[in-house]
Amino acid sequence: MLKNYSIRLVLWLLIQLLVEVKCQTTPFRSTQRSSHTATLIDSNLYILGGRNDETGRIGNEFFYLDVSVPFNTQNILWHNLTSINIVPAHISAASVNGGANNKTLFLYGGSSDKVMSLVYTFDTQSNSWNIPKITGDNIVRKNNLKGIINNYGKMYLFGGLFNGTTTQNDMFILDTKNLKWELGSTINAPSPRAVYGATYVSEQHILYLGGFSTASSIDGASLSLKEIYYYDMLKDLWLTRVTSGTIPTDRDSFSAVLGLNGQKVIIFGGINNINKFTPQDTLYVLDLNNFEWYIPKISGSIPSSRYWHQANVIGKYMVISFGFGYDRNIDNDILLLDISNDEEYMWTNIFDPNEVKPTPPTESPKVSPTTTPIPVIIGVSIGTCVVIISLLIGGFYLYKWHKNKTENSRAIPTPGSEGNNNFNHEAFKITTRNSVYNHG
Ligand SMILES: *[C@@H]1O[C@H](CO)[C@@H](O)[C@H](O)[C@H]1NC(C)=O
Ligand SMILES: *[C@@H]1O[C@H](CO)[C@@H](O)[C@H](O)[C@H]1NC(C)=O
Ligand SMILES: *[C@@H]1O[C@H](CO)[C@@H](O)[C@H](O)[C@H]1NC(C)=O
After folding, report:
1. Whole-structure pTM over 0.85, yes or no?
2. Using an 8 Å Cβ cutoff, are 157 and 174 in contact?
3. Which ligand is the nearest neighbour of the Cα of 142?
4. How far does the centroid of ligand 2 lie from the alpha carbon of residue 318, in Å?
5. Which atom of ligand 2 is nearest to the CA of 151?
6. Transmembrane among the record's keywords (predicted)?
7. Quick one: which of 259, 257, 87, 229 has its CA closest to 158?
8. Atom of ligand 1 nearest to the CA of 26
9. What pLDDT score does 5 carry?
10. How many whole angstroms separate alpha carbon 418 and alpha carbon 422?
């Protein structure tokens, strides 16, 4: 009697699990893309825009990866939201997570051959896109720039490419809570640039480095990473610092993130005028305590370099998404660099969502007196809890049931398996890079 009941309960739980997993998503095979946006909101990494470099196609796909559950980069289960997307196919926009609820994707700029609003918002609570009305300064469209959000909900948009031809060095600030544009200072700002690296380093500072300038010659050029630039969000002013150590060669279109303890900036990939980087020349760390660059010790299988990708810090990983310059038969669209141990970073295929405690900083970075380490905490969705509890209960009864029957080998539950050909990808330098990489 009790045994019957147990078996029925186990079956019921298994069916619930199956239904839940099946209903959650239809499998989505993502196409390769570059110059997209990747925005982390709660435990979802939203991917929007970009261009497929094999077909030249920029699509309007909109999809996300749930990072509250483990996954293997060889077999990623994307969730397709394309049916609710209102943003035209575009490339090279900037995005952040902001808004009054701090759960809204803000998309600025980019380029499209369709009519496109300057700003779009996607409320992840209601799963709906909007075109917000924004007051304040008159702001133009730019592309190939980074959006950085601070704790007051202000989105900082430095430089970028204007009108497809000219790199800029002005600072647009979008107050995502009050929907108002402001302008930041350009005094002592870095020289005009696009496709630079940028990362939030503290409540006070954003760090900018490298990039590409259309000014330096007819074709333009990648910029040096010897000088780095802090924008002080509280005082609206710029500071320059000169770095030393193993300074990476000039580069643009790389990614930059802040390490887990707030003391290191990690850069990956990029391109130098005509040269793609070797795997050994693609990952560098800048120590913010002494402004010294070094090549970190790494383990795991080292991927080839790429550019026009995105990087987000999620849990203990630098999560690199898509990009150009890698072979999909060799490298995955998503790369994971475990950055939890400053002594040795590790390339891995397995994402473990468990929270990580960063190693405490030894001292505060010189330029950022107010820095406090902000570990990225991944919220675990209620759905996951339900699944885990179900598994636990199910497992318990399954165990009892098996014990009562014959000895059987234990099955370990595994995480879920699973047109615009003439569009100008970049108006600068692209002809040179085209001929070198047969881009497009
Ligand atoms: C995603 O959804 C859109 C709209 O429903 C559909 O047209 C498209 O084929 C889907 N993509 C994939 C790869 O399933
Ligand atoms: C917004 O949410 C993110 C996590 O999604 C958090 O890191 C950040 O501190 C929040 N910002 C504000 C202003 O609350
Ligand atoms: C943008 O560039 C085009 C030529 O490429 C030019 O005709 C137009 O005036 C420019 N617009 C602005 C606002 O500078």
Report:
1. no
2. yes
3. 3
4. 18
5. 13
6. yes
7. 229
8. 14
9. 53
10. 34
Q: What is the CA radius of gyration of the chain?
A: 23
Name which residue sits closest to atom 14 of ligand 1, judged by CA: 28
For the domain with range 26-351, which CATH number is right: 3.90.870.40, 3.40.50.1820, 2.120.10.80, 2.40.40.20?
A: 2.120.10.80
Highest mean pLDDT among 108-117, 219-228, 425-434: 108-117
H or E segment and range at residue 98: strand 94-98
- DSSP of 112-157, one letter per residue? -SS---SEEEEETTTTEEE----EES----EES--EEE-TTSEEEE
CA 439 to centroid of ligand 3, rounded, Å: 25
Would you place residue 375 in the very low, low, confident or very high pLDDT band (cuts 50, 70, 90)? very low
Do 351 and 336 form a contact (C-beta atoms < 8 A)? yes
Ligand 2: which atom is nearest the Cα of residue 98?
1
Most confident of 13-17, 50-54, 57-61, 84-88: 84-88
Smallest CA-to-CA distance from 324 within 266, 267, 252 is with 252
Q: HSE (CB half, 13 Å, CA atoms) of 67? A: 30
Ligand 1 centre distance from Cα of residue 80 (Å): 7
Q: What's the CA-to-centroid distance between 168 and ligand 3, angstroms?
A: 14
| Residue range 97-110: mean pLDDT, rounded | 98
Tens digit of pLDDT for each residue in 263-283?
999 999 999 987 889 999 999
If one compares 423 and 366, the residue with the highest pLDDT of the two is 366
Among 334, 293, 289, 287, which Cα is nearest to 314's? 334
Least confident of 10-14, 55-59, 146-150, 214-218: 10-14
Ligand 3 pocket member 140 (CB < 6 A): no
**Ligand 3 mean position, distance from CA 162 (Å):** 9
163 lines ligand 3 (CB under 6 A): yes
Alpha carbon 164 to chain centroid distance?
24
Ligand 1 center–CA 82 separation, angstroms: 6
> And the tokens for 384?
């996951």
DSSP symbols for 315-376:
TTEEEEE--BS--TTTS-SEEEEE-S-TT-EEEESEE------PPPPSS--TT-TT------
Amino acid at 394: G
Q: Does residue 22 surpass a pLDDT of 60?
A: no
Residue with the nearest Cα to atom 12 of ligand 2?
A: 151
H or E segment and range at residue 238 = strand 237-242
Q: pLDDT tens across 382-398, in order?
A: 344 344 444 444 444 43
